[in-house]
């Protein structure tokens, strides 16, 4: 995959849009020898939600920690809101909000007290702070519970307070590290609407790390898939899914799937066949018309099917396409033998 070239870091305007973040070839190796980042590069525009999508350990949080000046890179350069992360870390910190994966609220204080203290730490002038706290409490829909101890809040309410604390000093950029981890689906969906409002109402650059595929698809204007400390591909969710030709037919096979892989690779309309654990994944040009001949071919060979599932291209397919693994899997990439049934029938876009 060709590396994108960004030019000089002091050029903050690309295509007429202000770049809130420019990262170039960031690397980081920890003392235990683990290579966390291996040349991470990307740009984020002002008013954009940019996602870093990948499983735990991919390098997402390390990237955020470096860009927010909580950690130093071994090499590479970056600017955030026009401030160099190495030459002007104080300028970076003044320009950003940071919401860590673990909640930073004091559960023994009220919501209002948490916000007030955070504003004082950020040196928000006293004559502005009270008005700012009231505004943010209303914005995150916590006005009615502002004077209650945070230990009485639900998980979603605590997370909204975390976000408000990251906004108290009116930053230009906010980093959200796995903001919905641990929330139930309904609460997560409500929080999504708040995150979308950060862009539409406040014109913030939002850097979102997540391992939820649906979340990245729903929220992000653009995203980068991060794997083993590298950006393997980036684009809008629609652009990334458009790279995947056809549909995917997932087959739950009784017994060994090797015979099914060999049979299906010779069928017309089959672009690729691969094993995902015990399942056989068949990428086809048209799912609806491909399923009958697939089922017939397996029946003639005496292969017993437990279930057949048809799906349109998803970010999970994009991740598999670029890494050889299903999203979140800790296993090894698919072997050449597992993919050879598709050789010559289709190529990567």
In sequence order, what are the helices and strands, one letter per element? Answer: EEEEHEEHEHHHEHEHEEHEHEEHEHH
Distance between the termini: 11 Å
User: Would you state the CATH class of the largest domain?
Assistant: Alpha Beta
Described by strand count, sense and barrel closure, the largest sheet is: 6 strands, mixed
The structure class reads: alpha/beta
Organism: Nitrolancea hollandica Lb
Membrane topology: Peripheral membrane protein
EC number: 3.6.3.-
Subcellular location: Cell membrane
Task: List strands and helices in order, with pairings.
Blueprint: E1 13-14, E2 17-29, E3 35-45, E4 49-53, H1 60-67, E5 75-80, E6 83-84, H2 89-95, E7 96-99, H3 111-121, H4 126-139, H5 155-167, E8 173-177, H6 185-202, E9 205-210, H7 213-219, E10 222-227, E11 230-235, H8 237-242, E12 247-253, H9 258-264, E13 270-276, E14 279-284, H10 287-300, E15 305-311, H11 315-323, H12 336-339
Parallel strand pairs: 4-9, 4-10, 7-8, 8-9
Antiparallel strand pairs: 1-2, 2-3, 2-5, 5-6, 10-11, 12-14, 12-15, 13-14
Provide a descriptive summary of the structure in words.
The chain is of the alpha/beta class and 349 residues long. It has 2 domains: 19-239, 3-Layer(aba) Sandwich (Rossmann fold); 245-312, 2-Layer Sandwich (Alpha-Beta Plaits), CATH 3.30.70. The protein is built from 12 helices and 15 strands. It has helices spanning 60-67, 89-95, 111-121, 126-139, 155-167, 185-202, 213-219, 237-242, 258-264, 287-300, 315-323, 336-339; strands spanning 13-14, 17-29, 35-45, 49-53, 75-80, 83-84, 96-99, 173-177, 205-210, 222-227, 230-235, 247-253, 270-276, 279-284, 305-311. A 6-stranded mixed beta sheet has the order 7-8-9-4-10-11, with helices on both faces. Strands 1, 2, 3, 5 and 6 form a 5-stranded antiparallel beta sheet that branches. Helix 3 (111-121) packs across helix 4 and helix 3 runs parallel beside helix 5.
């Amino acid at each position: 995959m060709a590396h994108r070239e960004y030019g000089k870091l002091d050029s903050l305007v690309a295509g007429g849009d202000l770049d809130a973040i420019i990262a170039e070839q960031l690397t980081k190796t920890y003392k235990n020898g683990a290579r966390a980042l291996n040349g991470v590069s990307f740009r984020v525009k002002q008013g954009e939600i940019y996602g870093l999508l990948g499983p735990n350990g991919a390098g997402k949080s390390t990237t955020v920690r470096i860009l927010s000046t909580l950690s130093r890179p071994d090499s590479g350069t970056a600017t955030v809101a026009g401030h160099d992360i190495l030459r002007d870390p104080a300028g970076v910190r003044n320009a950003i909000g940071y919401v860590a994966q673990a909640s930073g609220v004091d559960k023994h204080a009220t919501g209002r007290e948490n916000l007030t203290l955070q504003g004082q730490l950020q040196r928000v002038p006293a004559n502005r702070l009270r008005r700012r706290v009231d505004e943010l409490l209303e914005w995150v829909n916590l006005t009615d519970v502002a004077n209650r101890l945070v230990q009485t809040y639900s998980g979603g309410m605590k997370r909204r307070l975390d976000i408000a604390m990251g906004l108290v000093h009116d930053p230009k950029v906010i980093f959200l590290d796995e903001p919905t981890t641990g929330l139930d689906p309904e609460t997560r969906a409500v929080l999504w609407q708040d995150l979308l409002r950060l862009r539409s109402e406040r014109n913030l650059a939002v850097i979102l790390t997540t391992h939820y595929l649906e979340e990245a698809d729903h929220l992000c204007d653009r995203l980068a898939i991060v794997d083993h400390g590298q950006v393997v591909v980036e684009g809008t969710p629609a652009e990334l899914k458009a790279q995947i030709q056809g549909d995917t037919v997932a087959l739950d096979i009784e017994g060994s799937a090797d015979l099914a892989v060999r049979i299906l690779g010779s069928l017309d309309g089959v672009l690729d066949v691969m094993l995902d654990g015990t399942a056989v994944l068949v990428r086809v040009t048209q799912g609806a018309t491909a399923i009958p001949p697939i089922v017939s071919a397996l029946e003639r060979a005496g292969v017993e099917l437990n279930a057949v599932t048809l799906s349109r291209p998803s970010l999970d397919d994009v991740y598999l396409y670029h890494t050889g693994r299903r999203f979140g899997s800790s296993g090894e990439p698919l072997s050449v033998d597992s993919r050879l049934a598709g050789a010559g029938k289709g190529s990567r876009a």
